UniProtKB/TrEMBL annotation:
N6-(pyridoxal phosphate)lysine modifications at: K199
Keyword S-adenosyl-L-methionine on entry: no
SUPFAM superfamilies with a match to the protein in the record: PLP-dependent transferases
Protein name per its UniProtKB record: DegT/DnrJ/EryC1/StrS family aminotransferase
UniProt family annotation: Belongs to the DegT/DnrJ/EryC1 family.
Record InterPro entries: DegT/StrS_aminotransferase (IPR000653), PyrdxlP-dep_Trfase (IPR015424), PyrdxlP-dep_Trfase_major (IPR015421), PyrdxlP-dep_Trfase_small (IPR015422)
Length: 382
């Protein structure tokens, strides 16, 4: 009797391969922290902030406990709260809108571009009108550089300047990417990122950072991340948070940052191989001229109600997939009562039923990439 053996499973994101590559460097970095015992705000935290600033070109870097806090800190520092509106895309992870609600503001949802999945700059003005019609004061916009690809920041800046909006770029998935020759971290008023383990630059727990060229704003955020402290830590000058980046995580990130550019280049080679093998059978992601992506995800579109069958076909052959995001925020239970901008969110509704991500990381061997392509092609042709 012929028994069909299950092919070996492929890792969707292979954190273990990176761990094996860094090996002793990570072990030694963690050991140094365990030996000096400065587990909160130890010297590695300041060293990592300096390394991050040098990498992206920002004048100020404020590390913190998570990517979510990296969005909360600037909102709090700006005094945004009840009665204010924060504009953000509906097609994104919930944290983008969650932070507005956490500070007491109201998120206004806008649509995304059909090709890039990033915020439509042209819809920002309509969202401002929506906010004003509801008696809200539009204060900020949080564009998202989704799946590792920068949004159209020049167009966003023009729309934001016209409406007097502060820009907080949600680069949780895109740190390391570049826009018109500049790495993300400069350009918007503030750039926030996440070091969650699955991110292109991830730690071994939670972590985040805020990048800006505004020294005064950075100082306020540094105060907020440690309970609103002033020059005397027992005479707090504002209401704050407990949002320090752990020293051990900073030590890990210092080592990971050393190989990050190499990993970015490898991710781009994987993406190019996928595009070459799949472009004739499905809609593959595109990178506009002058942009680079870090490919946090490699997301294709499978329309016509065939996505679930496609995912099952790949699963049967050991190829994992993931859906980011099956439900846009304006339809989720916690957010469906918040307003949508006047331009609507038709694209977000449509692509939520079509997008599906393939395995993507810097340690996918060429033969594994070819296997993903082969299985995907056969499934798409059914």
């Amino acid at each position: 009797m012929n028994v069909r053996t299950q092919p070996p499973a492929i890792s969707f994101i292979d954190v273990g391969a990176q761990r094996r590559r860094l090996g002793k460097a990570i072990d030694d970095a963690v050991a140094r922290v365990l030996n000096h015992c400065q587990f909160a705000m130890g010297p590695e935290v300041r060293a990592f902030e300096a390394d991050l600033a040098a990498f992206c070109g920002a004048k100020q870097v404020v590390s913190c406990a998570s990517g979510t806090d990296a969005l909360v800190l600037p909102l709090r520092a700006l005094g945004i709260g009840p009665g204010d509106a924060v504009i953000c895309p509906s097609f994104t992870f919930c944290a983008t809108a969650e932070v507005a609600v956490l500070v007491g503001a109201t998120p206004i949802f806008v649509d995304v571009d059909e090709t890039t999945f990033n915020i439509k700059p042209g819809d920002i003005a309509a969202a401002v009108e929506t906010a004003k019609s509801l008696g809200l004061k539009p204060k900020a916009v949080i564009p998202v550089d989704l799946f590792g690809l920068p949004a159209d920041h020049d167009a966003i800046r023009a729309a934001a300047d016209a409406a007097g909006l502060f820009i907080i770029d949600d680069a949780a998935q895109s740190f390391g990417a570049s826009y018109k020759g500049h790495r993300l971290g400069t350009g918007p008023h503030v750039t926030s990122t996440s070091f969650f383990p699955a991110k292109p630059l991830g730690c071994y727990g939670d972590g985040g950072a805020v990048m800006t060229d505004d020294a005064e704003l950075a100082d306020i955020m540094r105060s907020i991340r440690i309970h609103g402290h002033g020059s005397d830590k027992y005479d707090n000058v504002r209401i704050g948070l407990a949002s320090r980046l752990d020293t051990i995580q900073a030590a890990v990130l210092i080592e990971k940052l050393k190989i990050f550019q190499d990993e970015i280049e490898t991710r781009n080679k994987v993406a190019a191989r996928y595009a070459e093998g799949l472009a004739d059978v499905c809609a593959v992601p595109t990178v506009p001229e002058g942009y680079t992506s870090v490919w946090a995800q490699y997301t294709i579109r499978v329309p016509g109600g065939r996505r679930d069958a496609f995912a099952e076909a790949l699963k049967a052959e050991g190829v994992p997939t993931a859906i980011y995001y099956p439900i846009p925020l304006h339809r989720q239970q916690a957010y469906k009562h918040f307003p949508v901008g006047k331009a609507g969110v038709a694209v977000s509704d449509r692509i939520a039923g079509e997008v599906i991500a393939l395995p993507m990381h810097a340690y996918l061997e060429p033969e594994v990439q070819d296997r993903v392509i082969d299985v995907a092609r056969r499934a798409l042709k059914k």
